[in-house]
Structures are given as structure tokens and as C-alpha cells.
Design a protein that fits this description.
Length: 677
């Protein structure tokens, strides 16, 4: 394999001194020697043939037929070559065989035979030298040999030009035959190149030239530097800005694997949303931890986070989040709250003359150029940190809320300084709307089933040699990253994220505590928008005093709240009962039967409406901001009301402004009472 790769890149290193000059001249002369050796060989054959067949009529016939056969054979054999090369080869063969026949029969020095040899032989040799020179003069360097590689893969007319060799990486310029071969042919031949070089399919990539349909760069990485697992050792830039690159791993040539979330108006880079996709066992959890720890280590960003898996992988980071919820209705509330925060943030940025979020927007606005005051003086408004809305295991959320749950966020959030991160195993279009998928320009594609590759990566990246289906779950952490700010020729280069082990938990907890103490807090505009939808469900990141240990706030899970106190579980209605107090005396009716009697008095319409309003208040106080008829089932049984009556009251409350319809049929979002008023 190494010999074939050396032939492919064809590197030549010159020495110093006389030996170096000699080696250089010999290397330059070698490609031009074969025509002259051919002329000398024909002359020698003529001398020897004349000695043997000078007076043989049979030899004359045989030599004549051989001459015709060789000329015709050269024309037929050259069918796959260009027309000029085919004609040149046929003429050279015809002239050489004709002279050899004459020399063998008449003698190499008879009549004009010797003159024809002395004049025609060098002329033919020089014509081939000129052809070789013209073929390489465009690049100014000698064409590198491919050892027959291009012929083996079915692209015989393609030319491999000058190569560039770096540590564990060789890049060769490829020129395909004009009119018969395209970059698509080269992309389709990559598996055969990998087979010819005995390399993995992911080690061979092809980057087409955007200005040409038949030129591009063939990239070969012979050694897999990702095979060694590297453990996460902590954030790369603690206290830096979220505008700085996030380091989440390394490429197969050892260079860092980078990702940017905010845009950069100076470089023309757009802000981005991220899709993290990978099958079970592909290392998707480690990829998420790499990205989250980088985000939480920056000073000017907040993160809201949803995880239906009850923070199984992310619990050490809980104190660092601005808002964290589990799946179901709390996530539904978070989606609606983020949707409400986007126009509020966009309005603030526009009022302060920011066309997009930049790090200066996160600081107090002391620059008159970014003032919301009409007189042009500095306004002194509080800054607005960047915001990340992360939805882990988003397939659960999409099933609960609907496949277009994130469409509005994905289409509008970038200009508001918000990045949406969606993580799921299979980003197929039957789970996520096409509008949402089209609005996620960045992707971290880990191992998957081969049939799912097209859901994760663009077609042009797959055509360039990316193949996450080859890994499946056999190489956890291996991934391809497509994102603004990354060179396009890197899109098909595999990388690998850092590995998180149990030993990383302590560092993660310390990082979360750092974010709690020193990280950015939600600005008043964003916090107000989130509270206008979520009410008391949004509390913001809990405060931490110096010297305090990590503080993990209670996280609501569906209808219940995690119980952090050790000891007996007590129902809320029994919390004030003194277990040492004497039981009250028996009262009249205590001995009444529990069953077989009337259900009691049904509340009047006015009383029922008052009870319904109280129920909404109780849901809001508990942080359950999205409700539907199924949430009132126990309440209906307790008050002898029907589900259809509740449905009518929900619609009436929406008309009155106490509720707002969501994207899911039969689900209503509670508008906080202060906002409704």
C-alpha cells in the first residue's frame, strides 16, 4: 500500500551537492528517454535482421505482413486514447516497422536507408519528447505517475497532476478527460480507489473544483489517527466568548474539530442551528456533552434545555442551565416560551442597531452607536447574552407536540441571537418537517444505518466520500461536521469527539458551578418573554454564593416534582397535620355509607366556571402551562362534570384571553394571569 501511495503522490526530494544535481537531472530526463531507447532498439534490430534475412524471400513476406499488422494494431489498441495520441502512435509504428523491413532486406546502410534512420529516428523521438513536455507545461511540473491506478478504476484518460503532501495527508490534483468524464464519475470511483490502495472507504475523499466540472482534489489519509480514544480533559476556553470556536474533538489528521454558533459579520459567517444525529451506540451522548460543556464554559451565553430522559447523561451540568425541563407538557411550554422570546429579542437588537447578535450586544450598552434613545446618547440598557435552546431526544418532543414544533424557531431564531440544537437518532422527514430540516444548516453526523445517511448529510458531502453508515455503532464518537465557518473540503473529513468517562463527572460539576457563579444571566427582555408564557415554570438559573457547593434546583417532571428530601413521602394536603395530635371526636355523618348513595349536588354553572378558573390558577401555580381535556379528568370526576363541558370552557377561556391554542389539536397554553390582564 505504501508503494502505491508513493506512486500516487510521486514526491521527489532533491539532495545537495553534485549527487543532488545528478539525481535531479536524471529525474527530469527519465520520462524523455523511452523514445530514444526505442530508436536505438529499432536500429540494432535492423542490423541483426539484415545479417540473418538479407537473402530470404520468406523473411521479406513475413516482415512486410508484420509491419502492416503492427501499424493496424497500434491504431486499434489506441482506441481508448485521444485522437491525437492514437494517430501519433500509429504513424510512429508504421514508420518504424517500414524502416526495419527495409533495413533487414536491403541493409541498414544501403541507399537512403541509413539517411532515413539518422534523420527520421531523432525526429520521431523528439516528437514524443515535445508531446510529454506539452502535457506537463500547464502546471510547470512533471505529471505525477499514478502507477496505473486511474486505469484500474475505469478512468484511464484522467490525469493526476502535482501532489501536496502533509503529515498523514496527501492531496493530488485530478484532471478528468474533457467531454467524457465528470466529477460525478470520480466521486463514484472512490470505493474502487480505496480498494486499490487497500484503505478504508472513509480514508479517500474527492473535493470537486466549484469552477470546473472535471477538476478536483483527491485527498488520501492513509492512517486513521482517530482509532485512539482521547478523554475529555475540560473546556478549551473557560471564560471566553461564545463567538470563539467551540472545540469538540479532532479530525483524522490531528487538527481540532471546531464549530461556531453565532455569526460573524466581518467574515460573512452566518449564525447557525445544529442537528446532532446518530444511531444507538454511535456516541451521540458524548457529542452532546462536548458541545454543551463548551457552551456552558463561555461568559456571554445562556442555555435552556429539554431532556425527556430525565437528564441521565447531563445531571452534573444541571446548575449551569438557565432553565431545564423534562419531556411532555413542560417541554411543550418551553417550545412556546422560546417562540415568544424570539420576536422580543429581535426587537431589542433592532432598537440597538444590531443587524445580528455580536459579543458587544451582551454588555451594557454604553456605545451611542448602539443606543435605543432617540437623542442618540448612550442608553445604558442591560446587555443581551446569546441564547441556546437545546432539545435532547427531540423525537419524543416531536411526537408529543407535532413534527413542525420547531419550524418557527428554526426559521426566525438566528437573527435573534438564538441557536436551536436538536438531537435525535434518525432525522427522517416523517419525524421532522421539511421546513425545520431545511433550516438546520449545521449537522454533527455520527454513525448510522447506511439507509439513513441522506437524512443527516447533504448529497454533495456524501458524493465527496463521507460515509457514516460504514461506522454504525462500531466506532462511537466518529462523526462528520458540516457547519458555516468550516472549510468545505473538511466536510467529508471524519472527526471524533472527546470521550466522557466517569472520571469527568467532577470536572463537569465544577464547570456547572462556574457557570452558575460567573456565567451570563438571562437579560430582562428574554426573561420577561419567557415568563410571559411559562409563568412560574421559568425561574432562571438559581443564584449561588461564593463557597456554596453545586446547587441542583428541583426539576418538574410531568405532573410531579422530584422529591429531594430524604425521609417519608407526605401528600401536600397532609403536610400541616401534627402526627402527635389527638384525633378529633366523632362527628355526625361519619358512619354514613361510602357507596350506594347519591353522588351529591352538582355545582351550578356559575360555581362550575369559578371552579374551572381556580383549576387554571392551580395549574399555573404548579408550572403546568399547557393543558387539555385529559388533564381535567380527575377534576371532572371530583365535581361531577363532563369532558365535553371542559372542552367548551377551554374554548371560552381562549376567547377571554386566559388560554391560547398551541400547534397540537386539543392542547391549550395558559397565559399568565398578569399577562392576560
Amino acid at each position: 500500500m505504501q508503494a502505491q501511495l508513493a506512486q500516487l503522490v510521486n514526491t521527489r526530494e532533491g539532495g545537495t551537492g553534485a549527487s543532488g544535481v545528478s539525481n535531479y537531472l536524471l529525474g527530469r530526463a527519465k520520462p524523455h528517454l523511452p523514445p530514444w531507447l526505442g530508436v536505438a532498439g529499432v536500429g540494432l534490430a535492423g542490423v541483426l535482421g539484415h545479417e540473418r534475412w538479407a537473402a530470404s524471400p520468406a523473411a521479406a513476406v513475413g516482415l512486410t505482413l508484420t509491419s502492416v499488422a503492427m501499424s493496424g494494431g497500434a491504431w486499434v489498441i489506441g482506441k481508448s486514447a485521444s485522437k491525437q495520441r492514437r494517430l501519433h502512435s500509429a504513424i510512429t509504428t508504421a514508420l518504424g516497422s517500414a524502416w526495419l523491413t527495409a533495413a533487414c532486406l536491403a541493409g541498414p546502410a544501403a541507399g537512403p536507408v541509413d539517411d532515413l534512420y539518422l534523420m527520421g529516428g531523432p525526429a520521431l523521438a523528439l516528437s514524443w519528447n515535445v508531446r510529454i513536455f506539452m502535457r506537463t507545461s500547464d502546471t510547470g511540473e512533471q505529471s505525477s505517475g499514478d502507477g496505473g491506478l486511474m486505469e484500474k478504476i475505469g478512468l484511464a484518460r484522467a490525469q493526476i497532476r502535482a501532489a501536496r503532501v502533509e503529515p498523514n495527508r496527501a492531496t493530488a490534483r485530478v484532471e478528468l478527460d474533457a467531454g467524457t468524464q465528470t466529477n460525478a464519475d470520480m466521486a463514484g470511483a472512490l470505493p474502487r480507489i480505496a480498494s486499490a490502495l487497500d484503505l478504508p472507504a472513509s480514508a479517500v475523499r474527492y473535493q470537486p473544483d466549484p469552477d470546473s466540472a472535471r477538476r478536483g482534489d483527491l485527498v488520501i489519509v492513509p492512517e486513521d489517527m482517530l482509532a485512539e480514544t482521547v478523554e475529555w480533559e475540560g473546556p478549551s476556553n473557560l471564560g471566553g466568548s461564545i463567538a470563539d470556536p467551540l472545540v469538540i474533538g479532532r479530525y483524522d489528521d490531528g487538527s481540532p474539530l471546531l464549530l461556531w454558533l453565532p455569526g460573524d459579520p466581518e467574515s460573512g459567517r452566518n449564525g447557525t442551528h445544529v442537528l446532532v444525529a446518530g444511531g444507538t451506540g454511535s456516541g451521540k451522548g458524548d457529542a452532546a456533552l462536548n458541545l454543551q460543556t463548551e457552551i456552558l464554559s463561555r461568559r456571554d451565553v445562556t442555555m435552556v434545555f429539554s431532556d425527556p430522559k430525565s437528564f441521565q447523561d447531563f445531571r452534573p451540568l444541571l446548575p449551569g442551565y438557565d432553565w431545564a425541563v423534562e419531556g411532555g407538557a413542560p417541554t411543550e411550554t418551553m417550545v412556546a416560551a422560546v417562540q415568544a422570546a424570539i420576536p422580543a429579542r429581535t426587537r431589542w437588537l433592532g432598537q440597538h442597531q444590531y443587524r445580528q447578535w455580536i459579543p458587544e450586544a451582551a454588555h451594557e450598552q454604553t456605545d451611542p452607536a448602539h443606543s435605543c434613545r432617540p437623542d442618540g446618547r448612550a442608553c445604558g440598557c442591560a446587555g443581551m447574552p446569546f441564547m441556546v435552546a437545546w432539545f435532547e431526544e427531540a423525537a419524543n418532543t416531536l411526537r408529543f407536540v407535532g413534527d413542525d414544533a420547531f419550524t418557527g424557531i428554526a426559521q426566525e431564531a438566528r437573527s435573534a441571537g438564538v441557536s436551536l440544537v436538536i438531537s435525535l437518532q434518525r432525522p427522517s422527514y416523517d419525524q421532522m418537517s421539511t421546513s425545520t430540516r431545511a433550516s438546520l444548516p449545521s449537522v454533527i453526523a455520527l454513525g448510522c444505518h447506511p439507509d439513513d445517511e441522506g437524512f443527516s448529510l447533504p448529497d454533495e458531502v456524501l458524493a465527496a466520500g463521507a460515509h457514516p453508515g460504514a461506522w454504525r455503532n462500531r466506532k462511537p464518537g466518529y462523526c462528520y461536521v458540516v457547519s458555516p465557518g468550516i472549510d468545505e473540503d473538511r466536510y467529508a473529513s471524519p472527526g471524533r469527539t472527546w470521550r466522557f468517562t466517569p472520571g469527568a463527572v467532577d470536572t463537569m460539576q465544577q464547570l456547572a458551578l462556574w457557570a452558575q457563579r460567573h456565567g451570563a444571566a438571562a437579560d430582562p427582555v428574554t426573561a420577561g418573554a419567557l415568563k410571559s408564557v411559562a409563568g412560574t415554570a421559568y425561574t432562571g438559573r438559581p443564584a449561588s454564593e461564593p463557597g456554596d457547593g453545586p446547587v441542583v434546583r428541583p426539576i418538574r417532571s410531568g405532573d410531579d416534582q422530584d422529591v429531594e428530601d430524604a425521609g417519608l413521602l407526605v401528600d401536600p394536603e397532609d403536610a400541616d397535620i401534627d402526627p402527635e395530635a389527638e384525633l378529633p371526636e366523632a362527628q355526625q355523618g361519619d358512619d354514613a355509607p361510602l357507596f350506594g348513595t347519591d353522588s351529591g349536588r352538582k355545582p351550578s354553572p356559575a360555581e362550575a366556571r369559578e371552579l374551572f378558573a381556580q383549576a387554571l390558577d392551580e395549574f399555573e401555580a404548579a408550572g403546568r402551562m399547557v393543558v387539555g381535556p385529559r388533564d381535567f379528568m380527575d377534576w371532572c370526576d371530583a365535581h361531577d362534570l363532563t369532558r365535553s363541558w371542559v372542552s367548551k370552557r377551554l374554548k371560552a377561556a381562549a376567547i377571554q384571553g386566559r388560554l391560547e391554542a398551541t400547534n397540537t389539536t386539543g392542547r391549550w397554553r395558559i397565559i399568565p394571569e398578569r399577562a392576560a390582564a
